[in-house]
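JOB MANIFEST
job_type = single_chain_structure
chain_count = 1
residues = 132
[input]
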Amino acid sequence: MNLLLELAGNKAKARAAAKELTIPQLENVIAGFNNALVKLKEEAALAAEQEAERTAAAGKIAQLIAESGLTMEEIAMLSTPKATVTKGKTVEPKYRLEIEGEVYEWTGRGRTPKVFQEYFDQGNSKESCTIK
């Protein structure tokens, strides 16, 4: 790459390097450079076209904003998605105990509540307090 930059900056060195090549080799190098030049021009034109499209789109957006009467802060507030809390689904209780007129319910998930554990420790089974 450094050699190419050096040859591109100095015509005398480029001519001296060209003398070392045969005519077909030199024509091949020139054709390769011409192809590279055409592709670079196409890429530059495409980039300029895309930039023009972006500029036009930005102009349309600015016009819509001006027509709507909204400020940028209001648009930002309205366009940012609200953080929604995704709570787990409420699980229906699977077990129910009634002790001294007070009703205790348990889904059967997680740690066994003390009231249920004491009930089970007395020799009762889970089936006896299952909600039917």
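[summary]
The first strand starts at residue 95 and ends at 99.
The chain has a mean pLDDT of 88.
exit_status = 0
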